[in-house]
## 1
Amino acid sequence: MKLFSYNVIDTPIHKLSGLTKLICFFFLTFAVMFSYDIRTILGVMIFSFVILRISKIKYSQIRLMIIYVLIFLVTNAVISFLFSPEEGVAIYGTRHDLFNWFGSNKVTLEGLFYLFTKFFKYASVIPLGIIFLLTTNPSEFASSLNSVGINYKAAYAVALTLRYFPDTQRNYQDIGLAQQARGLDLSHKAKFSERFKNAVLIVVPLIFSTLDRIDLISNAMDLRGFGKKKKRTWYTARKMTRLDYLALFISAIVFFGIISVSVFINQSRYYNPFI
Amino acid sequence: MNRKPVIEFKDFTFHYHSQAEPTLYDINLKIFPGEKILIVGPSGSGKSTLGHCINGLIPFSYKGKISGSLTVAGLETKDQDIFNLSKIIGTVLQDADGQFVGLTVGEDIAFALENDNIIQHEMHERVRKVAQMVDMESFLASSPFELSGGQKQRTSLAGVMVDDVDILLFDEPLANLDPATGKTAIEIIDDIHKNSNKTIIIIEHRLEDVLHREIDRVLVINDGRILTDMDPHELVSSPILAENGIREPLYITAMKYAGVEVKREMRPGYITTLETEEFKDTLANWYEGIKAEDQQERKSPILEMNDVSFSYDGLRQTVTDISFQIQEGEMISIVGKNGAGKSTLSKLLCGFEKVVDGVIQYDGQDIIDKTIKERAEIIGLVMQNPNQMISKPMIYDEIALGLRLRNVPEEEIGPRIEKVLKVCGLSPCRSWPISALSYGQKKRVTIASILVLDPKIIILDEPTAGQDFRHYTEIMEFLVDVNKLGVTIILITHDMHLMLEYTPRAVVLSDGKQVVDTATSEILTNSDVIKQANLKETSLFILAHMVDIEDGTNFVQRFIDYENKRKNRGVQR
């Protein structure tokens, strides 16, 4: 299984330049982060699932990532409710009590609606991030970052990180197996604290073998002239195509659409169904 | 010679800041344009440092004190930066995987051009041309995962040739290649030398493999000094190799065993030029005189695989119908080219992957349903790179790890570790930190950390990869000692010397299928098997034919027997 790794498939999403995808990603993310309108948020969510489908990403590739993100989001929602249960009431200005918990604390419809909105706000952005990671050729992305003025050394560092992700993952699995054979328990039977301690036993050898590799690759790069000049060209650089402009156009429309809904219809960042 | 040298060392000394002593002393050396030079020497002799000085990694990446002078193409290297030097010298590093910078073959070859600001369409054109020279043009869009070791090396070669450098420097080019691929690599280097007349410098300790093709001069370096500068014929007929821990070609060893005095006039540098007329009879007499080792009766099998098949994805079988037995106390090799299913097989044995079909029996009992942890009581695995296994800063804790994870009481751990430390010759270092150890010692620690769990069988993945002759011998003799304690040892390897010297029997895999399970001497002389497993014919076999010994296989077998007797070892205990 290759998590987080770029796969070459021929879809319109893969054909977009890395820079286009990054800008589109920012457009949509900013829009969703700005707006607390559940209608537009669900709209973006559906949109991102459609894109996910178009880019032919299989569920099995991203299952693990989805699970972790869901755990994180649920924890986030529970904790924010525990700390400020009245947030919803404060924002929407009304109060519809549902039931009591812990004596005088009340669960309100407003509170639940606020949490629900917030949950989907984050959830709708995740597929976009996944699409970006899985459909972008790291080198080509580095070249686009460089073309908008980012230092090529920084851009290349990003590309190498993305590239070594699958390698490191494979290495982690191998080391993990060898350590399990010595008696390390990573299964669900072990206690959480135990599992954490055991994971350290895998991470240490992983770091050392990765450091070896970094030394080697940086020598290899020096020996072939990396960092010699102020600029460099890119073998994989792509020109912007019609498809790129179309994608940028669509995401710009979505962005301005969502902002307009907030500004002109809701006249607030929040959509209030309670008045 | 009145030409100007392209590389010239004059009273050159180099001292790493981090070291107490200089690594190179008073080097005086001239290399002329178009020469093909081999630099041999044991690990730590300074041969890699010499290479780093030539290509500019010293002083660019590794700092130290330089005295004397080193000029490359007339330029003093101290005053040059690594980038200028990279236009003159192309370096191919030993780990073809680690130096793969690009995401695809094309991109990797283009890397130097990208850094030189070549415009895109010219870049694509030049990449295609160079790829053609190394026969990789149909792989331009492939990623490194899809390539074999040899293809990766061709890619690295193309990556330095794209700059049209005058000098090519190969730093241990054979280290990670199987014998057949290594042979091809030497042929490619030779072809490039002949077609382009570039200056070639090869740093390598596997002398016999490099001498597959012609070399102008061989430099022997040890303890930071150049000891000799000879042509191959003179070198192999001198005692210098043995004195400096460099393995001489096997056919030379055989000649010496037979009592032949190896002389320059026999042209012994390459097996192809060797003139055998003078000592034919001596060798034949020696061969006739060796008594065959008695075949000892086979003990009961400790491990048995019956029709074992496995598939990662349920579609394509990675290994198919593997059946073999391993006797208690045996030392056996599993060989085959990359992707033949060797690692999968060891994963199946350790329980990391579950057998789809077939039976694995230990001592007559089916162990398929045992967990990884339970299997570890029987079978231990030592990975190739010790850094992949060591997770504690102290030797004692590292070896204790497996026992502590099994909740063995501390009073019991102490004596068990003492025992293992003694076996592994690590007793004096029991309280040392791991960081104070050499590579070979680290390897011992990883073996110790498995031995302490008291497994009946140990699997070692390429135990001697990248080791020079001395370390190789050290590790292998240590394993023989472990084997003497009654531990069965399975070696996954493509080192032919190792198979020949240490494992009387080997199982050969190809494309997930078992090709043969027989005596090593038969494997290394059977051209079909050799081809399927990416091995090469041993020079002993060729020698046998050159001196008209008909049964070459038997010649190889007797050579092994003779060697074992010299070392006072039986074949099977």
## 2
Amino acid sequence: MTRLSALYQDVILDHNRSPLNYRRMENANRRVEGNNPLCGDRLTVWLRMEGGVIADATFQGLGCAISMASASLMTSAVKGKTRAEAEALFNRFRRMITGSGEPAETESLGKLAVFSGVSEFPIKVKCASLSWHAMKAALDEPDAVVSTE
Amino acid sequence: MTGAAGQRGSGGATAAKSSSVGTGTDSAGAFAAPLPGRTDSLLDVNRIRADFPILRQRVRGKPLIYLDNAATSQKPQAVIDAITRFYTAENANIHRGVHYLSERATAAYDQVREQVTRFINARSAREVIFTKGTTEGINLVAQTFGRTNLKPGDDIVITAMEHHSNIVPWQLVCEQTGATLKAVPINEAGELELAEFERLLTDRTRLVALVHVSNALGTINPVKRLVAIAHAHGIPVLVDGAQAVPHLRVDVQDLDCDFYVFSGHKVYGPTGVGVLYGREALLEKMPPYQGGGDMIATVTLQRSTWAALPAKFEAGTPMIAEVMGLGAALDYFTDLDLGKIAAWEHELLSTATARLKEVPGVRLIGTAKEKAGVLGFVIEGVHPHDIGTILDDQGIAIRAGHHCAQPVMEHFGVPATARASFAFYNTLDEVDALADGILTVKKMFTR
């Protein structure tokens, strides 16, 4: 697999083309906008927290294939997780995409491991993590704007 | 400080225009041979490329194809040498020392100002201010001319195709003075709505600020005509020439503009140096931009008086080495045949435009009749950043994003575009590689 095909894996391209959880959530109790001002990527993440658990997560926005697919898989991955579990997952995900994680840890990320190729593209780290930053901010603040800068 | 003068002839542009131009059917072999003969048709590109050491390298295992010239151009050896030579043998502060090196550096610095004066055909060197770039030139005018001439109820007219550097400085001065900023709209091709331009000018308009060549669209604005219209209303005009100077012959007296700004690094010179041309009568009336050394006549602890032009606007030790580099760049550039360069760049742009038009799903952003250097586009279903990343993997450098022109993106209803921008050292093989690369992008995203 070339460096490029490791980045743009079929799973990522599929999620880019038809992202999961791509909708505004009417009964959300958390909403955060994420911006990547240098490249203009912008997305909104909605969460519904029920008793300390993420009952639902959705997003909408525009960005490159990596940021779209990452938001699609992030919203799927955090559903049903507690706040602590979601944050721990983000930490592991971040270690993987920055290339500082152990291989075993990457494997434990399941479907999210498809983003391991990002570590070869430092410029794409922000794209892959934008929706995660927004999700984390939504856990902390019910209504906020986060920026990758 | 004479740069590359005399090192290069006018190029072997004798061969008739090759019939294979732009067919692109031999794409598999695009990298196999060094530039085939067809690129010699208008300009001796091979000889010119030899002057740019950076173009010899491979990136990502492929020959570098540099199509991000609107962001910054590459530098000929003569420019690199001029800067090295200055720091190796000539470095001293200027306008200060009585010693040999300072005397020489001062003379060389002032000589480049004379050179710029001739390059843009200013009336005198007093009208040529060195800045750190286009952005600083515009901010200088906004904070001096703007602040002293704007009152609540006044307005400034810009256009909807400006770079952020010709929007934000005016927004700042409008906030400071209570003036209003208005923008001339653009049409679907990315051309100014000329009827709207005249309609927006009122007796409260204090300045028109507009771009000569759009960095996002490539549109060449009819600046001379627009200046004449504005002057008929008694309104001075600032022209942002950052993208024009590398492609067009600029004559500030012919344009009759009141301010003209550009950057050295887009015209094959170093970063950190640019030029503000200003009509002497206006510059005389403007207060200083920054205070410090070199811009004063006398200083007491109570008050100071200002140096004469152009020193009044050049506080502190300037970017001396960069000015030397700019001098070498202008020597190099003016030594080329600008007519041939323009014809060659037009050939590159029109060939690339034709190739991209053939690709289903590609939409060109910026289709003005008069264009220079820039090819903006989007591909259906593919974000411009992904285009940029995939092309980069093939050694092709383009820009993807909003190009510091978010209002332009909004006008075309896109979050970003991909932009290939050309310089005279680009080749038709590189255009082919770009077109092939775009087919690769499409293949990846539709598999």
## 3
Amino acid sequence: MLLERHGPDARLVAGGHSLLPMMKLRLAAPEFLVDINDLTDLDYIRVDGDEIAIGAMTRHAAVLSSAILAEHYPIFRDAERVIADPIVRNRGTIGGSVCQADPSEDLSAVAAALGATMVIRSLEGTRTVSAREFHTGPYETVVGPTEILVEQRVPIRPGSGSAYEKLDRRAGDWAIAAGGCFISLDGGGVVTDVGIGLTAVGAHHFCCPEAEAFLRGRVASDEHLIAAAAKAAEAANPQTDQRGPADYKRHLAGELTKRALRRAVARARGEEA
Amino acid sequence: MQVTMTINGTEISREVEPRLLLVHFLRDHLGLTGTHWGCDTSNCGMCVVTMDGVLVKSCTVLTAMAGGREIGTVEGMERDGVLDPVQEGFMQEHGLQCGFCTPAMMLTARALLDATPDPTVGEIREAICGTTCRCTGYENIVRAVQWAAEHPAREEVTA
């Protein structure tokens, strides 16, 4: 296998819409590129038992238009609609996006919110890693130099609602801040399960367990959603940069989490598509 | 490295540097300067071409990655002296000012109409949101695409 032969000097290139810009900026300088665009058997979205399996070579455009994801997790559609533009979405892949591990990347927050499992393969075999343990830091993941991410698996949660809310400076830009979630309610409107993901605001592993723990077992009232969103803002650790000052981003982390929770609850109740 | 691909229906083989971007291969090696080079960061969309029938930004595709694939550029829109209805529409509705975005806009419109022959204004605007007109002539660009949708047959065109 080429990665075994060339080791860390080699990089996989899928859509190339993260790696090629990094190479142009001289932030990446691989000696060898392995073009995996012919791995079309990694391009799929399918129901597999009680999970949805998404192949790593699935393009953003396919994620956006997937009927399976629209039915079970509208959070994907919400997020994909605001990732770059339709032409970039033709090319970029879900695997490349999460492996780039940009701290402002949207699908990493979606995977963290949904508690996805990442399936990683090498010549030695296959291993799985929780989405919340996948990223080891900005632009770094647990995927080793001789490994490839092949699949993302998301547990199906019947009756749940999900949503993604992002603010960007112009259409299709990276997020100033964004938050996404799923929420499951019982017959009495009590939160039985919830996952919250944040991006671009320095949340550890793109998630905020404190807000989730607060909501679990509580009625999904607007008062509780607002309190949970405040905990998400506390969990954020944003940096001041060209996209805005830290306190503004912290405010957004709370506000966007609140909007996502409200929309997810409305969807769980069947009040919104 | 040796790269072979089909461009506008013709197979082309060249020796290229591995780092060469597709946009530069088209422009500098083949003289197909209808594909423009803008931001170089996959934002502006001036370098749009089709690869195996799908719109891509050629500033973010290595020439080597296009090997074995079918590339379509604006030079391939006219056939036997007859313009594509999209090209005709851009003339009829004054869909260009400086013309820099026009090749990308027309290829994008062609791909839209192939998938959605009768698009709404909203669908047209969504389709072209990855290509930037710095003259901001979007109203006429949308009208040009609508004209092409209303005149889908090449035979109907009159220069």
## 4
Amino acid sequence: MQEARSAQAKATPFRIDVTLYRESLRTLMLDNRKINNEKDRIPQNILINMVRMSALLSSAAECKTGRYIVCPPELMTKLSSQQQLISKDFDSFKASLNGTG
Amino acid sequence: MMPWTMQFVQTTWAIVLESATWILISLFFAGLIHEFMPSSGLKKHLNRKGPGGMGSAVALGGVLPICSCGVIPISVSLYRAGVRIGPVMAFTAATPIINPAAVILSFGLLGTQITLAYILLGLLLPFFLGMMTERFGDKTAPPEEEAVTTSDCCSASPCESGVARQAFPQRIVSGLRWGFLTLGPTIGFYLAIGILLAAALSASIPVEWSERYLGADSVFGLLAAALLGASIYVCAVAHIPLVATLLASGAGPGAAIVFLVTGTATNLPELFALYKTIGRRTVIIYTSSLIVSSLVAGVGVNLWLGAGFSPVFDPLASLDLIDTGEKLWLSPGALMNALAAWAIVALATWGFWLRFRQRFPGRRLPGGSGCCGSD
């Protein structure tokens, strides 16, 4: 995300990172389904926000200007706010785990 | 914060890169249409009275995966080949909105209800816009050729009177020459001006505005979504993730659908090029009908789904749908985009030179006044 905002991310490694993010997310979701205790599972809203993040990063990967990724300001703002949203969601999830654990 | 000029230059180049390959592909088809359409059955089909002609135009637009800037050369050549203005404008609207990749991505990110509204609007809106422009648009017949583009007199219409006598390969060459050498500079010049205007607008609009105004749960929010969507350059596939986050951050479903539909159906470069090539009245009717009808649709969607609607879906299935949508998204390679972008810059510069020469006709190009090498 930081790379996309810097306007200095090289296009090819960035695209690989985006694909890796999506595949890690897929693995995370599959593993999450295997957890028996409902309370220990990552909540649906966090996963949905991560899916949105993945789609935004794919859009960013398409913004190639020469060899670099240069995103439009609107996309950068969305990437930033989506990251904040996911961090906030994860913080409250961690807090709920600590509270119950 | 990036300086305005830097932002302007980057946005300009980003729009050129994104649209250039499609404009070149469209010029290719425009040339073939110019050559073969006047005598084809497709023209009769598109010119049928009633909903049949309009339906054919919408179906034709639906199968072409081209964004709103790219569709202009084909639209202009259809118009100049004698297709009625209604089907031409229906085709112009349908091509960028109805895109299989966008529909699948929308299912994955915006949910079933909004996607259904998007599909319904994508089918009905071009129909409506075609009917409105047919009824109230410019009534004049399309010009045979623009005077400014006839510097290469071999590609001008008078010389093509013997076209029917040419062999098939020669007709293809003749059509492509018209597409790239006659229509190309004109369209390139107008699109370049439109792209510069769109980039200036994009660089000037504060990014917080989209969240602030599109999130406003009112008719004003819907109007802001429509105006913003109609002026900036948006490609449906690339824009759906933005609309999804907009929806997640509290924007009403109506604003999301209005922004998506007006954004994909049109933009400033497209409107400017159409304004100059097809007619002022048609473009005014087209844009105002698009804005008003999408506003009505937005209000309808808000009433149907409720302003606080948030799509619910299975994240894993959504990820799979996004994968499928992106596989269907035809994205030319970086090298192809860069080469196409420079070709468009060259066409626009040539178009500018032709305009300049027309305005200041002091000197004539070497080659005399003969036509088609007849002298």
